[in-house]
Amino acid sequence: MSSPERVSSGIMLMETTTDDLVACVEIIREPPIPMNRSLANGRLSITLVLGCIFAAFSAVIFSSNYVLHPGSLGVLVFAELVIGAIWDYRKRFFPFLLLVFFFAGTDVAQLEFWQIARWFVLGAGAFAGTISCLGDRRLSFGKFHVFALLCVIAAALSASASAYTTDSAFKVFGFFLMFLYGAFGIRVGAAGRELKFSFALLTFCEILIYVTAGCYFVLHYYFFGNPNSLGAVMGVLVAPVTLWGVLASERTPAHKRRMLAFLLCMLLLVTSHARAGILGAGVSIVLMCIALRRYRALAMVVSAALLATLVVGLTFPTVTDQHNTGQSLASAFVYKGHPELGILASRESIWKETISSVREHPWLGTGFGTSATGIDVSNDFNSFRSSARSTREHGNSYLAILEWVGIIGVGPFVILMFLIAANVVRLLVRIRHSGDALSPLVPLVGVVLAGLVNAAFEDWLFAAGYYLCVLFWGLAFVLDDFVYVSDHSGIVNQWSA
């Protein structure tokens, strides 16, 4: 073969190799095959029609008093908002759901309406998300979803052993709707747009911080009620997400604004004197900074927390106990004003009571969401909120679920919590290897990790009507998708902006 022919053959080989390489890269980066447009439109129509039927059924059966009320126009407007959120399901529904649940769990006007509306919105979202998943190749199901289903079945079985069967049955139904939304609805909203999803959560947290700071520090309106709720929201949700916002926005105009939001979050968290919230935020923030190798940022966070503690101790009244002033910082934060009783004095008695109840009802428990208080609730039943006569404080979500479902039913819950913890560890290792502060994994892992720690001292983890519960389980389902996709495709940090 002559030299010109060899040169020509080499150029053709190089072009072919380059084209193949480009094609391979495009295949890796190419998003999942989009759904057929006619199929998507058909599913959307079916979703809206069935959603309207669900809305009418809920209005007539469960809230007929609002339909006949002169203010029923507000209900119709709310129904239109729900339909609008379903119409742009991927972008709008999750923030709308969070907003409704926050209204239902805080001291706002028309509280009874929001307590009813949260279940309607959750049911509509679960229903619409299930239909939207039909034919969607981006979503898959594995052992995590199997054990979530087994948890619902175990909860339903335990309801038969409850002294308050009706209460327990409605709580199981709410728990089922929450898991159904987590398995289908929220995953539809996050799949393929993970970075936008995390930034939407960051925007929600920023708005929440400024509203809360204005109400607590300026208006002295404590709309979260219990200071432990303020601590849980700031420690589990807001602190990890806003810290990620600070780290991800370095050298951008938004950095100073998000730094201010994070400092206000620290101030609110310390003001609550909620040790569980502070501990959850502390563990989450430390592990996030270590995973990202941001040791200087960790030192700045510790300094900000100490400064906030000093400011609260010297300036702001104690939200936990406004009448117990003049106490030392250690007494206020560590011992809750009673150093003679020990650090866990507020938890030991209720833990012992829960353990005693487990011994009395060891196998099927007291019924999901209910405790054997021995009080007649036949005339105090309300399907939209918990009855104080059939529930009590446990001081630990894991002890609470053991009491509710018993030794027979707690197995799936234990395995599911183990899977969540394993996912968190694996994703923290992945973050450590990549070192990418812009990764949408970071805030979601931080929230779930803080929730696991906080739940060891609070009761909210399996209370489907509580805003943090819905948020935690939704993000737990999303994180499982991160693990599955990266393990089966080998692609890391190929986020859709």
Provide a descriptive summary of the structure in words.
By secondary structure, this protein is an all-alpha fold. The chain contains 18 helices and no strands. The chain has a domain at 37-132. Helix 10 (227-248) packs antiparallel against helix 11 (254-272). The longest helix has 38 residues, at 397-434. Mean pLDDT is 80; it is low at 3-42, 60-68, 318-326 and 488-497. The protein is globular and about 55 Å long. Helix content is 71%, strand content 0%. The chain has helices at 3-29, 37-61, 64-67, 72-87, 89-105, 111-132, 143-159, 165-190, 194-218, 227-248, 254-272, 275-292, 295-314, 329-333, 345-360, 397-434, 441-454, 467-489. It starts with a helix and ends in an 8-residue tail after the last helix.
- Biggest sheet architecture: none
Discrete helix count: 18
What's the number of extended β-strand segments?
Answer: 0
Question: Measured on Cα atoms, how large is the radius of gyration?
Answer: 25 Å
Task: Detail the poorly predicted runs.
Answer: 3-42, 60-68, 318-326, 488-497
Could you tell me the strand content as a percent range? Answer: under 5%
Intertermini distance: 51 Å
Mean pLDDT: 80
Q: N-to-C SSE series?
A: HHHHHHHHHHHHHHHHHH
Shape: globular
Please give the share of residues in helix: over 70%
What would you call the structural class? mainly alpha
Explain briefly what this protein structure is.
The protein is globular.
Note the topology.
Elements: H1 3-29, H2 37-61, H3 64-67, H4 72-87, H5 89-105, H6 111-132, H7 143-159, H8 165-190, H9 194-218, H10 227-248, H11 254-272, H12 275-292, H13 295-314, H14 329-333, H15 345-360, H16 397-434, H17 441-454, H18 467-489
Helix pairs in contact: 2-4, 2-6, 4-5, 5-6, 5-8, 6-8, 7-8, 7-16, 8-18, 9-10, 9-11, 10-11, 10-12, 10-17, 11-13, 12-13, 12-16, 12-17, 15-16, 16-17, 16-18, 17-18
